[in-house]
Amino acid sequence: MMTNSDQARRRMAMMLGCSVAAIALATPAVAQTVRSQAVAPLLGDTAAPGAAPTDRVDVQQTESAARGDEDGPDVVVTGSRVARSGFLAPTPLTVLSQTEIQNQSPSNNIADFVNQQPALAGSTKPANSRLNLSSGQAGINALNLRNLGEVRTLVLVDGHRSVGSTITGLVDINTIPQGLVKSVEVVTGGASAAYGSDAVAGVVNFILDKKFQGLRLTADNGITQYGDGHNYSAALTAGTSFADGRGHIEVEGEYAHRDGIFQVDRAWNATGYVRIQDPNWTANSTTPQFITTKRQIGAANSTPGGLITGSTAVAGSGVAANSLRGVYFGSGGQPQQFQYGALTFPSATGSAAPTLTQGGSWQVNDSGRNIGLDPQDDRYGVFGRASFDVTDRIELYAEGSFNRQHILFNAGPNLQTGITLSATNPYLVAALGASRLAGISSVTLATTSVDLPSRVVDNRRKVQRYQIGSDGKFDVFGKTVSFDVYGQYGRADMREQLRNIQNITKIANATNAAVAPAGNSGGYAAGSIQCAINVDAIATNNDAACVPLNRLGVGVANSAAIAYVLGSPYRDETTEQKTAGVNFRASPFRTWAGDVSVAIGGEWREESIRGYVPQEFQPIPTVNAQGRPTVTNTWSVGNYLPTNGSYNVKEAYLETVVPLGLGLEFNGAVRGTDYSTSGGVVTWKLGGTWAPIPDIRFRVVRSRDIRAPNLNELYQAGSANSDSVRNPSFTADGANGPATYSYSGIATGNPNLRPEVAASWTIGAVLAPRFLKGFNASIDYWRINIKQGITSFSAQDIVNLCSQGQQRFCDAITQDAARSVPGQPYLLIRTQPFNAASQLTRGIDFDTSYRTQLSGETALTLRGQATRYIDNILDTGVPGAVIANTVGVNSGQATTPTWNFRGSVTLDLPSTSITAVGRGISAGRYSATGIECQTNCPLSTTNYPTYDNNQVSGLFYADLNVTQNVRVAGKVKAQFFVNVTNLFNREPLLVPETGLAANSTYSDMLGRAFRFGIRVQTR
């Protein structure tokens, strides 16, 4: 009988065998018919195969651009609004050609290739967004330049904004028509003067092929070496001209599917690599507080069928407290004894229940395996564009796209701790026996609830984008002016749903089981097991739907009880973006050094959000014991509230390029922006280039950039709580008020937020020596300093900052006169985001490429890219928070390795292209403020803890890509391709944490994976 594993291996072998056979069978035909064909031009890419441009506008213009040639048409470079032939902006620009995308992309999603660029390596992808349970970001691909956060990277499509797929405005790369992307331009520097808000870290512009001709079919299939992670996609692209070439129409439809991997069945996840505190450590110890070098460490605070973490003895019974601690329940409710290992934290015999153990029963808690490794993803999209030249110089166009995506992900078990069971609970009595419970009044239980289905993230998104516009040229006073004008509407409909979520009240009711007494208020049969609320003396709290739930064991829960206690909370959100803009470009006059180019334009934009949450999934307004308003959460997670709001912005800009002679060129821009929420702000850019000789060009740019608050930060729906805060101004005589204040807090957005402001510098050089034809290199130092950063504060933080005289924090505090008494004011505190943070990040980018002809039809291309981070210092503005340089910290998901790098070697044969890729990050630290020591350790504190080992290893992965061209017949051409990622099956970067202990931002989480496919095109 063939097992599932055998079937998976067989399916993988068949897939790989078919792909290899297809390439092998195609070889003779290639040799006869396409000996002189390069790989990339076969399918219409104008780039030379394997070309690797560095800071270039067009791949084929690399050398001429480096030498300052002025020939060729005017082009608009991403990062600038000026159209000018031969112009190279001072802001660094990297172009990823269609050839590179097709030949080197590790998956059927273009984002997975773009994310490999060192400056973008920290981007959000399904592997590291999967556990964003209540944010709606699970499963998206969002770009993150410089690790400054996705909200500080502006994503454009053909130079225009696109509607976001989340409430924070993140553009999901999945919504861009993959098959029509001609190139991707990455600007690694501030560009707010050119494009407005969000371009603090830079811009990523996806350039579409607007004149595609012919018909192209693309299909691919992939799987991991473990037989899971199966994925496939298909896309059909068609384009044609009409009316003697004056009109053009093109459409694309695509579908992609990815099987989810719902359990982490990988050897690296079964080593028990977890940080543990030394239970013998005290504040006076000279040994490290934390141990990170041990293995076989697991959770000791819960088990799949329930673990007793404490027991309460009846007073005077003579039974010791916690005598039942360590009893856990296995299959069918069978009680067993948890074996605590040689090293536990805290001590197994102490007053607190152990949370971790080394050895012993460390593998009983299996929650680190029963969680998703990769989400299931289904997405499809359609795109269409039509254009018509109404005159020889003016074009009208309209385009539209519609995308739908469905994400499912296993978010792990329904962990619940602190469950109190009465010693009379009939399931407990049945499991342990009455004699063992003698002298016990109650037990405390913790469980990962294996009988309950795992929590599931279920996100559905529909994203639409429509645009009409015109572009062309006209003459004014003998000068040619180019223009474009457009209007755009975008809409994203999102349902963020969590399935199999515990209803807090219902699971408490179902867990509290009791034996029905005769004459009970619910009328149940005497001696039957029922929910205690239905058989007690109080008839008003009955719930006829309640079914008792057995929490003690594996395979013991009743399906009706499971259905009663679980639900699927959701919220619906619709974001809309309306945009209109106009741009003009001209060279109105000349100086002694050449034409002065000018661009001028303006844009209007409106962003809005509407939210809906069914009442049953919202927190319940109530009052606390003191009669003060608060809320009670209904669900263990996913207590949603609807968000509503909108803002608009009006912008105008001016940019110029002025040649100064002797190889000098000045580029400057200024933009005025007026937000309906925060008023006006000015951004600008001053830069220049100098090419003293054709072989080298120096560049420098200084800019002021902004990021405006997004819809979530402005209008986040509130949730409330009641608590107390310490009075930082308290004195013993009571002159400054009481020692503490009671308050009601509400967490909301802040409509008074102002844009973040960044000061950016870039200084660099580009080298293209004539004596080494085909070689290009660039090096750029960059520095970004963000002020007025948007951050959130606790109620105590707000009170502390108000006491220091900061009025904006005092404005978040009001006194509730109705609930205040003399000498004891009652406060209302809005815990909302403020402009209070600052962040400094700086580093150096390196980019080199070399291409040479080995023979008439054979070429070799080498490409190397790296980013060296120097500083990443975040000051949240929270009083007393530690400010540290986090460069080199590799432990968490939002980390900044010292080095990110990627290199490739491409060998182009007459009809075959082979590319090997190496990529990774450097070794680093576990904690930015951690102190590594083994003996004579300093005092270990919360801010500066001590570790026996504070080192974390780096990563290196190798990929292999092979592309084979085939001319089928006439104008029909085909291309087969095979990709192998993580060629040597290197494991992820492991970090000593509980749960899925790997850095999923930079790691390959799946292991060696194979993808093969075909592209067929006819013109």
Automatic annotation (TrEMBL):
Gene Ontology CC terms, in alphabetical order: cell outer membrane
Coiled-coil segments: none
Region annotation Disordered: where it falls in the sequence: 46-75
Keyword Membrane found: yes
SUPFAM superfamilies (alphabetical): Porins (SSF56935)
Domain TonB-dependent receptor plug residues, every copy: 89-203
UniProt xrefs under InterPro entries: Beta-barrel_TonB (IPR000531), Beta-barrel_TonB_sf (IPR036942), Plug_dom (IPR012910), Plug_dom_sf (IPR037066), TonB-dep_rcpt-like (IPR039426)
First and last residue of the signal peptide: 1-31
Protein's membrane topology: Multi-pass membrane protein
Sorted UniProt keywords: Cell outer membrane, Membrane, Receptor, Signal, TonB box, Transmembrane, Transmembrane beta strand, Transport
Keyword Membrane (UniProt): yes
Classification via PROSITE patterns: TONB_DEPENDENT_REC_3 (PS52016)
UniProt-annotated location(s): Cell outer membrane
Major subcellular site: membrane
TonB-dependent receptor-like beta-barrel domain segment(s): 572-983
Entry similarity comment: Belongs to the TonB-dependent receptor family.
Protein name: TonB-dependent receptor
